[in-house]
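Here comes my example:
=====
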Amino acid sequence: MFCGAACILLLSLVAHASAHYIFPILKVNGRDTGVWEYVRKTNNWENEDFYPLRAYGSNDMRCYNTEVPNHKALTYNVDIEDTLAFKVWAWNASDNIFHKSVSNVYMARVPEDTDIDDFSGDGKVWFKIHEISAELDSETGMLVFPSTGLTEVEFTLPRALPEGKYLLRVEVIALHYVKRSGAEWYIGCAQIDVANPGGDGVPGPLVSFPGAYSGTEPGLLVEVSEPATEAYIQPGPALWPGNP
């Protein structure tokens, strides 16, 4: 059957919508927890296409949940040895990170005198513990994106991480439309309580959301469909390795 210009446009829009995703499930040592059980519901949790965040200067850069403030997530007690992951739900059959993307995982420690449910993550409190950057293929000159195709973003906690309650934040930054409409952020925040044994490190550098990104970083402006002229620079602060 012939598919004209209007048909092709419709198919393109459907494919684009189906590529959006959320992170409603925290995994611990390979086991799924409940949907939105330990992860705060995001503004797009019941939207028909899981629309992303593009306003990197808004308070939604923290946990993307300003429209669902009454949802109360539980707090998972984790061991410093645990392997954690955010599981992808997408509007495509494979439930994976469809776009050419890079990923980061941040943490923010909840003040001792604050209930974790009341902590929004404001101020310079966030530090990066994990990243999946882009790699330059020396043969083709094109950037390769290891985040693309992942069904979960998996990581471990830094061994020197102090005990306490934390917001655990994943972000996937999609770069396929940077020249047209800018980067797209896909965000999720889980609530965890870290103990056994916990460390005595000093996490940093600390950044705020909004504020961690200016929008002018080379890694947010790169044209992914053209050969790269230099190695990719991951946006955001340096990693805190936190390993004694």
